[in-house]
């Protein structure tokens, strides 16, 4: 488990206060599967760093980068010192090219380089000038030990945020309406050595929704797939209404196993259907898709909720490994809530519920009586999951999910 630098954790805590306000404002009681309302995840550190570089939508490349003479994001990235801070003022930034933090532009474990929303403001990086193309990513985080905090990245021609570097924290971000997965962790280039695949990144208190490629087959909310290293963690994250899967940890035989991923305390719902109702029958539409090509990877998936996704809630997707699958809840996913057809995974404390009839769960491996899987009727644990679902981020950044107005703790 990755440790968070105490200084960072403190900043995150302060950030949460502003966050809770917007979350409360966004509160509504949506019908199941309705358009998202919980978009309160954008915030920023409350304390202003001295000697920060300032970026604004009308900033210039050659500007001083001060509060009164702000520069551009690309220029600030090229100028920031290791451990320094870049503030993005609020507003919409129209970008037509990828913004890249290159390899070697690194912070350190004790002093991350920060790219953050200015306290209380909401910067939106808008890449709608891009066409849909694999080269057209939005923000590429290919450096190490960065802290990305409080930004929205939308309408990129490929991934909204691409993480090719290691040991980064991405917090309080929203990735939406991009033409491939909203946030993806994969190697930088096809010649990147295996031991440099991105590792130990932490995605925290963030939201990814309405990402869609035109084929409807690729755009997931969050993905650590194909060529990601060990130790990547998703925590307090929400993925919904993406055209393909909520999460995708796909592996393929050409590149072999990825590193084990931890997904915890997170929510995946409504995937396979965009907020405007669009469905693509070619999409996989799972809540949490945990493998590919019969390759073993021992992921850890715990305390998550998969609700109302267009195919399975949690699926091994041919991963025959020993995954840790604990204290998750699957509700009303279109096929199985839990679908694990082979392997030696260990299942503890999971709950599966349905309003109507559905497919029985399948959990090959080590499942004991601490689980309540679906075999034709709801068990006693399901009473907590009736009523409309809603969610918000609490002041400490934790994800709060409610059913029928009652908070559930998976
Ligand atoms: Ca792509
Ligand atoms: Ca797919
Ligand atoms: Ca996918």
Q: What is the topology?
A:
Elements: H1 6-25, E1 53-60, H2 73-79, E2 85-88, E3 91-94, E4 99-101, E5 113-117, E6 123-126, E7 139-141, E8 146-149, E9 152-154, E10 161-163, E11 169-171, E12 174-176, E13 183-185, E14 202-204, E15 207-209, E16 222-224, E17 232-235, E18 238-240, E19 247-248, E20 261-264, E21 267-269, E22 288-289, E23 300-302, E24 305-307, E25 314-315, E26 324-326, E27 329-331, E28 338-348, E29 351-353, E30 362-367, E31 389-393, E32 399-403, E33 406-408
Parallel strand pairs: 1-2, 2-5, 3-6, 4-7, 5-8, 6-9, 7-10, 8-11, 9-12, 10-13, 11-14, 12-15, 13-16, 14-17, 15-18, 16-19, 17-20, 18-21, 19-22, 20-23, 21-24, 22-25, 23-26, 24-27, 25-28, 26-28, 27-29, 28-30
Antiparallel strand pairs: 31-32, 32-33
Bound molecules: calcium ion (3 copies).
What does this entry look like structurally?
The chain is mainly β and 410 residues long. It is 7% helix and 30% strand. The strands form 3 sheets. It has a 20-stranded parallel β-sheet that branches. Strands 3-6-9-12-15-18-21-24-27-29 form a 10-stranded parallel β-sheet, with no helix packed on it. The longest helix has 20 residues, at 6-25. It starts with 5 loop residues before the first helix and ends with a strand. One calcium ion binds at residues 217-218, 244, 284.
Which terms summarize this structure?
30% strand, mainly beta, 2 helices, single chain, 410 residues, binds calcium ion
Summarize the model shown:
7% of the residues lie in helices and 30% in strands.
């Amino acid at each position: 488990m990755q440790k968070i630098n105490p200084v960072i954790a403190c900043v995150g805590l302060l950030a949460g206060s502003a966050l809770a306000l917007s979350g409360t404002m966004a509160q509504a009681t949506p019908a199941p599967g309705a358009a998202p309302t919980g978009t309160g995840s954008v915030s920023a550190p409350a304390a202003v760093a001295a000697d920060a570089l300032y970026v604004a939508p009308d900033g210039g490349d050659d500007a001083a980068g001060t509060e009164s003479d702000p520069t551009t994001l690309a220029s600030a990235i090229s100028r920031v010192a290791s451990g320094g801070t870049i503030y993005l003022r609020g507003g919409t930034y129209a970008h037509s090219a990828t913004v890249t933090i290159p390899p070697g532009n690194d912070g350190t474990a004790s002093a991350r380089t920060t790219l953050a929303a200015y306290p209380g403001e909401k910067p939106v990086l808008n890449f709608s000038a891009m066409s849909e193309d694999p080269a057209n990513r939005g923000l590429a985080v290919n450096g190490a030990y960065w802290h990305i905090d409080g930004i929205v990245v939308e309408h990129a021609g490929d991934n909204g945020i691409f993480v090719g570097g290691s040991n980064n924290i991405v917090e309080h971000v929203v990735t939406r309406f991009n033409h491939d997965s909203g946030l993806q962790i994969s190697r930088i280039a096809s010649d990147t050595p295996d031991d440099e695949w991105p590792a130990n990144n932490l995605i925290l208190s963030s939201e990814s929704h309405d990402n869609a490629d035109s084929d409807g087959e690729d755009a997931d909310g969050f993905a650590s797939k194909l060529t990601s290293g060990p130790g990547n963690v998703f925590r307090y994250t929400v993925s919904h209404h993406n055209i393909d899967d909520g999460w995708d940890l796909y592996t393929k035989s050409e590149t072999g196993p990825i590193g084990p991923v931890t997904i915890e305390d997170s929510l995946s719902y409504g995937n396979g259907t965009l907020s405007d109702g669009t469905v693509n029958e070619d999409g996989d539409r799972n809540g949490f898709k945990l493998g590919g090509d019969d390759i073993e990877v021992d992921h850890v998936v715990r305390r998550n909720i998969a609700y109302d996704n267009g195919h399975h809630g949690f699926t091994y997707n041919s991963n025959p490994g020993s995954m840790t699958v604990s204290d998750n809840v699957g509700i009303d996913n279109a096929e199985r809530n839990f679908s694990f057809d082979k392997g030696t995974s260990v299942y503890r404390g999971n709950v599966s519920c349905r309003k109507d009839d559905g497919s029985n769960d399948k959990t090959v491996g080590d499942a004991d009586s601490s689980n309540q899987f679906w075999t034709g009727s709801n068990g006693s644990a399901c009473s907590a999951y009736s009523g409309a679902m809603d969610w918000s981020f609490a002041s400490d950044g934790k994800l709060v999910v409610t059913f029928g107005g009652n908070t559930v703790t998976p």
